[in-house]
Amino acid sequence: MKPVNLIEYEPLAQARVEADAWDYYQGGSDDEVTLRANRSAFERIRLRPRVLIDASKIDTRTTVLGAPISMPIMIAPMACHVFAHPEAECATARAAGQEETLMAVSTVANRTIEEIAEVAGGPLWFQLYTNENPRVSERLVQRADAAGYRAVILTVDTPRLGRRERDIRNQFKLEARSLLANFQEAVADEPTFSRHVTDTWETVDWLRTVTKLPLLLKGILTAEDALLAVERGVEGIIVSNHGGRQLDGSLAAIEALPEIAEAVAGRCEIYLDGGVRRGTDVLKALALGARAIFIGRPILWGLAVDGQEGARHILQLLRNELEVAMGLSGCPTLAGINRSLVKIL
Amino acid sequence: MKPVNLIEYEPLAQARVEADAWDYYQGGSDDEVTLRANRSAFERIRLRPRVLIDASKIDTRTTVLGAPISMPIMIAPMACHVFAHPEAECATARAAGQEETLMAVSTVANRTIEEIAEVAGGPLWFQLYTNENPRVSERLVQRADAAGYRAVILTVDTPRLGRRERDIRNQFKLEARSLLANFQEAVADEPTFSRHVTDTWETVDWLRTVTKLPLLLKGILTAEDALLAVERGVEGIIVSNHGGRQLDGSLAAIEALPEIAEAVAGRCEIYLDGGVRRGTDVLKALALGARAIFIGRPILWGLAVDGQEGARHILQLLRNELEVAMGLSGCPTLAGINRSLVKIL
Amino acid sequence: MKPVNLIEYEPLAQARVEADAWDYYQGGSDDEVTLRANRSAFERIRLRPRVLIDASKIDTRTTVLGAPISMPIMIAPMACHVFAHPEAECATARAAGQEETLMAVSTVANRTIEEIAEVAGGPLWFQLYTNENPRVSERLVQRADAAGYRAVILTVDTPRLGRRERDIRNQFKLEARSLLANFQEAVADEPTFSRHVTDTWETVDWLRTVTKLPLLLKGILTAEDALLAVERGVEGIIVSNHGGRQLDGSLAAIEALPEIAEAVAGRCEIYLDGGVRRGTDVLKALALGARAIFIGRPILWGLAVDGQEGARHILQLLRNELEVAMGLSGCPTLAGINRSLVKIL
Amino acid sequence: MKPVNLIEYEPLAQARVEADAWDYYQGGSDDEVTLRANRSAFERIRLRPRVLIDASKIDTRTTVLGAPISMPIMIAPMACHVFAHPEAECATARAAGQEETLMAVSTVANRTIEEIAEVAGGPLWFQLYTNENPRVSERLVQRADAAGYRAVILTVDTPRLGRRERDIRNQFKLEARSLLANFQEAVADEPTFSRHVTDTWETVDWLRTVTKLPLLLKGILTAEDALLAVERGVEGIIVSNHGGRQLDGSLAAIEALPEIAEAVAGRCEIYLDGGVRRGTDVLKALALGARAIFIGRPILWGLAVDGQEGARHILQLLRNELEVAMGLSGCPTLAGINRSLVKIL
Asked: Which of A225, B111, B174, C83 is found 20 to 30 A from C148 (Cα to Cα)?
């Protein structure tokens, strides 16, 4: 029997992924406190469903930066889908397209920006890790623009790599373990992915000079930084702690969301990334101010179990759960979801 | 030795009920967070007993919508008692009658409205799931009225079925698994139970045109909806999350009760349904504003273990526990129970 | 090696006491929620020790209702010490005397009021369960007075027995299981212990007409009742939930203490009974307003393990722990202990 | 493979240390509630990392009482390093020197004040347990001064020893188990370490007359005592509960820090000692007002596993974790760390 929820995919996927890659996918930093908090924080939020509202027709459609998607559930940027399936990001992109939603493509994908764009049926955003050589970053962004990506996501929570102890013990190196496709082009002077970044708010300004694509910042966890982002005019903020893989002990994503939503007050779009496993989690995130959420590891679980179809099934399951949750909470449209839908214990 | 409390009935019942039906009875939706919360929320409420009050004579009698019952403990509407015992709802109704309390009869019972009425010794309320064909609903209500039921309970938390994963895995279908007695009559055009409902507040108004019976709404969890219900003039509100079977993550019933009691401020009767297993739970619910409570699954446990006598024993045990709790808290009558009896941690 | 703390006595005692009597000693009512809360509530209280105060000489002496005792630790009234040791209450009373503290003697002791008084070296208080025949109660109180008891404790939390399910399952009956010594005298008309009591505040007034002994109420858990007690002029209040044996779900004793101490504001003495196992627990209770505490079950553990010497060792261990705790918190005398010593989490 | 964090050293060390000495190192008092709270309290503090700050160059350097150290991580005073390694405190001191940080040397070291000073590469502070004979205390302090120690730490939380039950069961006596080096000199009249102390605030004044070294108080847990310390003009406060070894149930060190930092308001330096195991713990302590932290037991673990190199590795691991944490939280210098970096749940 097919899994009936996202969580059931986890052990099935583990049986199919090599141990060190599985640790890389699943692990968090240090004691994995934040990794666990991303989930447990949802349990301290109660839903306050409303009744006797005609919810026979559920409409999950929305737009993100103007791009229509069929539901407020998008695929988070994640490195190296190839550990899950040989078709890697191309399979994931096709799944996203089938479900008419957006995929964010990682700088460190195993397929090139262009290969993914070619097979994607839905909108794409490009996630950027900057390079110490700005020309490398510029080139990546311009390739994304040329390939039809709709926005650039600058990851701001990774000035250095978090202490992922599973990877340290496994001596796991992403670059050595698989082909980082976007760094294989025959550009003599800067072919290599580099981790050494010194991004500042000036990087944001510089990015504006390189591309006209909308700009999102991923990894903001405080109202203070959200306000700075709004002042810089970014189009979107992704509230995220990098799946618990960077600073251990930092706020759970859903814990940080309320103060950010209040500070931003509608001046840019806000998305949540971190710990979503259930349709009711999506509902909670939307109630607390997210326009849409990103789903990460479960997509890789689906991909590992059944390739494109598995990734697609993950999206289908979560969509179905969201529809049920919207129906049962008296919110047939996303517009009806607001802060009064939740009570934080 | 006979069980000394409700909880001891649970494993005894499990041994007597078929596995898929047991899952149907016991299960909640999704991760069963709300199912568990219905119980655990009671543990965060402390009792503040008063002393040196003559409680040698305990009086548990009360009325619900004017109907006298011997105690503020009623039988919740539940589908398909036949999985527990061949005499099904008729056994339950006789047990309720013996203990002089009220039974709420489900639309999806295994015995007809009329059959149950015939054997019931206590007052009955009819729980309505509306049908996409309003004539079916109308007919059910009118049959209930004709059979002497005292009120109609409109379930408002089930615009669609919750995601009960045990049932999904078991491929459990209520309609296929047993006879839904109220849908067997020889009416050519609408013989079938349908899940597809689009109830709104207009449904409430429409029901008023169909019957003069008092009307209760079951499944309200917010002060906002309680106020709307009061404005519509309903006679009663049943605070319930459908035993944790509909929207997972929603408030525990006892968590929702205080805000509803405060909002309603006595303008209609309020009952609690969800998680009651002890006489002290009844006391806590009454202190927080309920006029009476409904007991659900334990009745089916008693029924499974010993038919009518088992269901009756459940009621007797809970009555006895309530009497002891009233005696030990200095509340010989229900009128003496108020908010100062509890402290929420 | 001798046990180093009270807790280590528990398994040793269990091995020496018959199973049904052990259950009677150890058990609480219903789900034993309050029994556990009596302990766990202490863990939510943090100590705020003060430093650089000369605490080389610790003075634990105090008085209770004017009677000097060597430490603010007294023996709670408990039924039937004979299950622990054949010398029963006489052994306990000698142990209390050796440690120069007070013992409260239960109505349902296995030795008579007079026998215990004969061997006791310290002050005694008499705990009274009233009888449906007031002459029986009167006779008990007058015997206590004649035998030199210093006060009467009226237990007010037992208008009926709590639902102790261990005893129900064991079909345990105190009266049948051992000799209730105080009800063996050759008074033709009222020789029997009765449970049927209807105590009210009038009982308190009536007791005043029967004896000039100071009067304490045991089993108060609310500020409201503490105020009523003060108005009636009682000399002392024992904050207690009867060791978790009466109303399950009621406040832990230490949880109830602050509101009672605030309400009483010094107008009578307050003692705590419930869950004390450590010297730091005594300190917390005193900081929150108790003048002294009662220790219950551990005395029976000591008695079971080593008779009089075991009970005495329990007192010695707890005294030693209290002295260490006073020394380490900068409170060489009891007078220095106040509310600022604790922080409730 | 070498351990990747401090925690991994714990079982390795246990295999190398004799059982009774291990219990001495690891144990806390009574139920070890405070021992555990020292760790668990950190988990209730969330980090609020800031982004887009150039943190490519991390500077962990600071000063403590004017002495430069390479990082805000110092070695806590601990008795008898010899149980971990035969080179005892000399190995530890060399490790501290290699990592350019400070070591606090215990009165009850296994190497003399002078031996340790001879090999130490970094600054030293001398921790003083006073003696009932003030001349012994005076002599110790003057030896420390002569040997180049930079300050005296007066431990104020040990007017008597905490009830460490592991040691009671093991009949463990520090003096009998190893050589307390500082008490071996041929001074006829006071050669013996004594536990009997009666320190008061006058002891602080007296110490001033004995030495011109800066003075710190170790073991303060309340704002009240911190204010008294400031009034006495102490140069520093070490917030500590003695590793959970003195008054069980007292505040966790990190729980006490905020009220102390607020009360002191910069008038002396504040350090935290207790429960630090992670670089993020250091960050939390600094955010809540500590200038630097002390690390205790893990140093002994490192020492047990690999002598000087092991102790040094502990410091290196924690330094590296701190650098990563500073980088990931947008705090390249210690000056940038403040209260807004944390949220206490």
From this structure: C83
Contact criterion met (CB < 8 Å) for A250 and D321: no
Band of residue D191 on the pLDDT scale cut at 50, 70, 90 = low
Res. B188 pLDDT band, cuts 50 70 90: very low
- Specify burial of residue C241 (Cβ count, 10 A radius: 0-12, 13-18, 19+): buried
Distances (CA, A) of D87 to B287, D12, D83, D109, D338: 68, 18, 10, 11, 39
Chains C and B touch (3+ CB pairs under 8 A): yes
Interface of D with A in 280-309 (CB under 8 A): 280, 284
- Chain D residues with CB under 8 Å of C284 CB are 249
Among chain A residues, CA nearest to B200: A52
For the record, the structure tokens of D276 come out as 């630090």
Please judge whether B56 and C198 are an interchain contact, meaning their C-beta atoms are less than 8 angstroms apart. Answer: yes
Mean pLDDT of B152-173: 96
Question: So what's the ipTM on this one?
Answer: 0.96
| Closest CA relative to residue C327, chosen from C38, C40, C54, C27 | C54
Using a threshold of 3 CB pairs under 8 A, tell whether chains D and C touch: yes
- Over residues A45-73, mean pLDDT: 97
- Buried b / exposed e over C152-165, threshold 16 CB at 10 Å, is bbbbbbbbbbbbbb
Position A188 scores a pLDDT of: 45
Any D CB within 8 A of C340 CB: yes
- The reply to whether residue D247 touches residue C5, judged by beta carbons under 8 angstroms, is no
pLDDT of residue A175: 87
User: Would you call A159 and D324 a contact, using CB atoms and an 8 Å cutoff?
Assistant: no
C46 CB within 8 Å of a chain D CB: yes
Per-residue confidence (pLDDT) for residue D186, from 0 to 100: 47
Q: What is the pLDDT of residues B76-92, one digit of tens each?
A: 999 999 999 999 999 99
C-alpha B25/C-alpha B32 separation (Å) is 13
DSSP code for C309? H
Q: Which of B81, B85, B242, B313 is catalytic?
A: B242
Asked if the C-beta of A45 comes within 8 angstroms of chain D's C-beta atoms, the answer is no
Q: D-chain residues within 8 Å CB-CB of C278?
A: 30-31, 248-249
Cβ separation B52–C203 shorter than 8 A: yes
Please report, rounded to a whole number, the percentage of residues in chain C having pLDDT higher than 70.
97
Q: What is the pLDDT of residue A195?
A: 62
CB of A340 within 8 Å of any CB in chain D?
no
Q: Which chains touch C (3 or more CB pairs under 8 A)?
A: B, D
Report the gap between the CA of A31 and the closest CA in chain D (Å): 9
Alpha carbons D229 and D226: distance in angstroms, whole number: 5
Q: Is D313 tagged catalytic?
A: no
Judging by beta carbons within 10 Å of its beta carbon (0-12, 13-18, 19+), is residue B100 exposed, middle or buried? middle
Two tokens at D19?
A: 């059982």
**Which residue segments constitute the domains of chain A, with CATH numbers given?**
6-47+63-326 (3.20.20.70)
pTM: 0.97
The two tokens of residue B266 are 């006595």
pLDDT band at A190 (very low <50, low <70, confident <90, very high): low
A324/B163 touch (CB, cutoff 8 Å), yes or no:
yes
Closest approach of A46 to chain B, Cα-based (Å)? 5
Listed residue (B44, B73, B53) closest to B283, CA to CA: B73
At D190 the pLDDT is 52
State how far the Cα of A239 lies from the Cα of A294, in Å rounded to an integer: 10
